[in-house]
Amino acid sequence: MAEPSFIDQSKLRFREGEVIFRKGEMAQQMYIILAGRVRLYVSEEPKGEWTEELSKGDFFGEGSLLEALPRQHTALALEDSDLIAINRGTFMRMIRQNPEVSVKMMQRLAQRHRELGERVEELDASRPAKAAGTPVANLVSVLSGKPHPILAHGSLIGRFDPTTGVHPDIDLTEEDHNLSVSRRHARILCEHGRYFLLEEPGVANGTFVRGERIQPGEPRELKHGDRVGFGMVVLFFEKS
């Protein structure tokens, strides 16, 4: 009896109206559509604004293979759909064995990036202009009350390194009298208006959100008013 093929082993069937995954979920696999149609919604519920409608040959959910971040969309099967689920290990083997896979993926990602840029420009044009230089989010020191603006593309948090002369984006040197903050302590990532805190490798004194220590490599979403600790330095996360 012949062994089942990779496609047979990895194939999943989703019925019309069935949610494939929800925004905010952590996952380690992407999907390729063999048959059917899938729509990607902006919110956690599959209704309202959506970004893409995909069909046979398209792939989605690849962000979970590239970065340890929560899902950015909710995926819904618009009709009975057959998908292939690919985890990170399988994906890396595919890349090594067939470089064309990575080329096609980069082409598709570039197309999506271009389309997203066009939609963002249209959305920005319809919104009232913000004052130049107005930060969207800050970390505010409990000790000094000083706000530390978070850059639009994210910020590295730590202390000044006199050996290399490099300052992190958010430099806590003046706040950290006990030298409890690592040179490269943590990073805040911004994804579609949501902020995630991710501890850098090798941190000794921990990173905390609402008093709970987060695990290295596991991003924690920040909400307005959250108390955040880097070693012994405590700040509040504020989002305008």
Strands, helices and their partners?
Elements (H helix, E strand, L loop, with lengths): L5 H5 E4 L4 E3 L7 E7 L2 E4 L8 E5 L4 E2 L2 H4 L7 E4 L3 E7 H10 L1 H28 L10 E5 L5 E3 L5 E4 L11 E2 L14 E6 L2 E6 L7 E3 L2 E2 L6 E3 L4 E4 L2 E7 L1
Helix pairs in contact: 3-4
If you had to describe this structure to a student in words, what would you say it looks like?
It is a single chain. The protein has 240 residues and is an alpha+beta fold. It folds into 2 domains: 6-122, Jelly Rolls (Sandwich), CATH 2.60.120; 137-239, Tumour Suppressor Smad4 (Sandwich). It has helices at residues 6-10, 63-66, 88-97, 99-126; strands at residues 11-14, 19-21, 29-35, 38-41, 50-54, 59-60, 74-77, 81-87, 137-141, 147-149, 155-158, 170-171, 186-191, 194-199, 207-209, 212-213, 220-222, 227-230, 233-239. The chain has a 6-stranded antiparallel beta sheet with strand order 10-9-19-18-15-16, with no helix packed on it. Strand 9 (137-141) and strand 10 form a beta hairpin. Helix 3 packs across helix 4. It is elongated. 22% of the residues are buried.
